[in-house]
Amino acid sequence: GFIPQSLVFKVTSMLKSRKRVRKIIIKGIVNFKEYLKDYWKEWPIISFRIFPHNYFYKNIEMNNLNDILVNINRTLIFPPSLSTEEIVLRFNSKSPFRSHKKCHGFMLLKISVVKECQRLGENNKTIIKCAADYLWRNSTSQEKSEYIDLAQRVNTLILK
Hints:
Elements: H1 5-15, H2 18-39, H3 62-71, H4 84-92, H5 105-120, H6 125-137, H7 141-159
Helix pairs in contact: 1-2, 3-6, 4-7, 5-6, 5-7
């Protein structure tokens, strides 16, 4: 089931037996996995429950991130609970948040996630960024559009 049919057909034409082809392919996959396990011994083995494909998350504490994502209260994040005045004050302050770039939806989501993570007692910036990234990628288009609309309103106030 997990072996691509095109690969089976190519190898079948050479070996004349589908069962033999599947055994050879599976043996090759197992050998390759063992090779990778031996070759990458210096890397810690991490369970990728949430981010199975992205190497960026290898070096963070996955348990903390998983705990944050399980315990985070999405009702405090969606819809946005930030007011435009609060965001404009953040932009006009001299805090490290201030950016010369325009305000955008993901930035506002990250502010909400920072508040929620601080409520949960998490201050690791990398974990907060990963949690915000995960929530943004898995939010609906309606939830994203609420943050994008809020960012557009903030940009009109900032540019005045």
